[in-house]
Design goal:
Blueprint: H1 2-23, H2 36-53, E1 58-63, E2 68-73, H3 82-96, H4 100-108, E3 125-130, E4 133-141, H5 145-157
Antiparallel strand pairs: 1-2, 1-4, 3-4
Length: about 160
């Protein structure tokens, strides 16, 4: 009797995983992530562009949740609050999945409610897109909004196929 019960229990246990596997979804969603190595590559390109142009800057790279991966401030960066500005711009870009300047443009073009979002709405940050997904953003604080955007766009382009 004990052997028959044990065989029955083992048979049931062997069929449970098969039954669960049959109910599993056909696929599992894949989320691309921004690795530290890729963030370092992007930051190095931003530094090179900024140095070549003579625009020392602060650089911040965040993940898709707006959390910092790395920050740096080049020697001679003119804005004392540059790191905070670069981080705020990058966070804004990552969370909204668009350039931070888009929100600045919304405010300037009659959408003052965008101010209430509580984020930094200044030009100078670009989303980082890998495998078709926004995996983070880079924020730059150099000397002008145009230079900030130029550095950020060049840095992001360095990892695009």
């Amino acid at each position: 009797m004990f052997v028959k019960s044990l065989v029955l229990v083992l048979a049931c246990l062997c069929t449970v995983p098969a039954a669960l596997a049959a109910e599993a979804p056909a696929s599992i969603a894949h989320k691309a992530i921004l690795s530290l190595a890729t963030a370092q590559q992007i930051a190095a390109h931003a530094r090179k562009v900024a140095a070549d142009k003579g625009w020392p800057c602060a650089v911040a790279i965040v993940d898709d949740g707006g959390w910092p991966i790395l920050t740096l401030r080049m020697d001679g960066a003119p804005v004392v609050a540059g790191i905070e500005l670069a981080q705020g711009k990058a966070r804004t870009s990552a969370l909204f999945k668009r350039p931070s300047g888009d929100l600045e443009n919304a405010i300037n073009n009659g959408r003052p409610a965008a101010i209430t979002a509580g984020l930094l709405m200044m030009k100078g940050a670009q989303p980082i897109i890998l495998e078709g997904q926004v995996v983070g953003a880079i924020g730059i604080s150099a000397d002008t909004p145009a230079h900030d955007d130029e550095i950020a766009l060049a840095a992001v382009a360095s990892v695009q196929p």
